[in-house]
Amino acid sequence: MYSKTVIIANGDINPGPAVDRIRALVGLEGVPVIAADGGADNALQLGLRPQIVVGDMDSILLDTLATLIEDGAEIFRFSHAKDETDLELALLEAVQRGAKWIHIIGAMGGRIDQTMGNIQLLSHPDLDHIDARLVSGRQTLWLTEPGTHELMGEVGDTISLLPFHMDVTGIATQGLEYPLKHETLYLGPARGMSNVICGKPANVTFESGVLTIVHTVGRA
Predict the structure, then answer these.
(1) What is the C-alpha separation between 163 and 89, in angstroms, rounded?
(2) For position 2, what pLDDT does the model report?
């Protein structure tokens, strides 16, 4: 069972403290690593050895593929003419193996369409009730549903609260410099950008909608 899983995608690694925390977790807890095609090259750069590689194998270096096969990694090769992206296939593989906590490195990059698509993947129906997050440099991004959500950062960290695809209503915050008191964040205006943790506990509660939370270590 892969209760926790780290996925490495083929985008920019963007080293930083949020990425370093995930690397350390793999080492300390033995969290398994799944690579999405060329994400295997990124994994090796990070000093991580994927146990599984999935994708159409059009971007992974041949030497990397040979090394991982020799190491005993499972390789799942798909046709290039497929409906899913390599990252989506990696996410589905993690879910099938029982993952309830998935952190993804390398999901951001120079292509806006792929970056947006990777963020939207967090709303995949197969990820319902799974803690799936994108990690890049100093930042971690995830989607939340109505309820109360603890913000685990330190005082001085930056928190942005952004509606995902509709208005988010009944938002109340605790421990943030610019408080929201049972208000609405509307889709479009950027009012929820660049708040700051000023005390603990810090949390956000809301009643309806889907909220994107972006945590940046330190001041953004």
Answers:
(1) 26
(2) 80
Of 47, 45, 72, give the one whose Cα is nearest residue 60.
Answer: 45
Question: In the predicted model, is pLDDT for residue 1 greater than 90?
Answer: no
CA dist list (Å): 186 to 68, 69, 174, 210: 47, 49, 20, 11
What angle (nearest 5°) sits at the alpha carbon of residue 10, between those of residues 188 and 29?
A: 95
Select from 172, 160, 161, 140 the least CA-distant residue to 210.
161
pTM higher than 0.85, yes or no?
A: yes
Tokens of 177: 């410099």
Q: Residues 67-84: pLDDT tens digits? A: 999 999 999 999 999 999
In the 8-state DSSP scheme, what is residue 220? -
Structural domains of the chain, ranges and CATH numbers in brackets: 4-137 (3.40.50.10240), 144-216 (2.60.120.320)
Percent of the chain at pLDDT exceeding 70: 100
Return the structure tokens found at 16: 């930083």
Q: Which of 91, 107, 186, 177 is nearest to 139 (CA)?
A: 107
